[in-house]
Amino acid sequence: MTLLGFDIISDLNLSDSDSFNWESKPTSLYCIIAGNVSDDITVIYKTIKHLSKCYQGVFYIEGSREHKVLYDRDNKISEISKICLGFKNVVFLHNNVVVVDGIALLGVNGWGSYPTETDNDKFQTKVYRYDDLIYLEKTVEKLQLHIDVKKIIIISSSVPSVAMYFGENPKNVMDDVSLDTVLSSDTEHKIKYWIFGSYEKIVDTIRNDINYISNPYYNRNPYYARRIDIEI
What we know:
Purple Acid Phosphatase, chain A, domain 2
């Protein structure tokens, strides 16, 4: 049996005054970042550069933290994309599926917890959320017929459903349509893991044969990666 390992981190929420050192902490060749690195593009660059030296491969999806200005989403995504393209071993997962040894990594922001202030903000985040949901559904449908894809890992910065709050009622959460409605498109049952951010508690639970994992930083000290091993 051969296993492929990924280190899971999220919600670093770094500012330019924070220090971040991941040396000696990697436990796998690959790292998955489930959003919310920083709202400062320079800090994002420094963090991605640092992690690119720690891992053979880094797979990153941005979160609401990266979008300080709601209506500047496209420009910020473009900036982050350029940063990631500057490193051969870093992949920005926005509209970009990566297949590693038969395992597809599919990432979205999800826009489930942006702190909206006006009705226009709420409407705009709903538009972004529906865009991501449609992308998820269409991509999962395509991957069902992809002969080289045996398993799928979904990575979302947002919590996939209210069930993952385990009875809590957090603020600024958009739950009118859950991201996990995409599971109905997984007809071949290829989705094995759902990695997510934007939740302050550590989660490792299995529902309907899918392992849901959240490993947020949120100033935990010490803080370590959560490793998953997938049979290939």
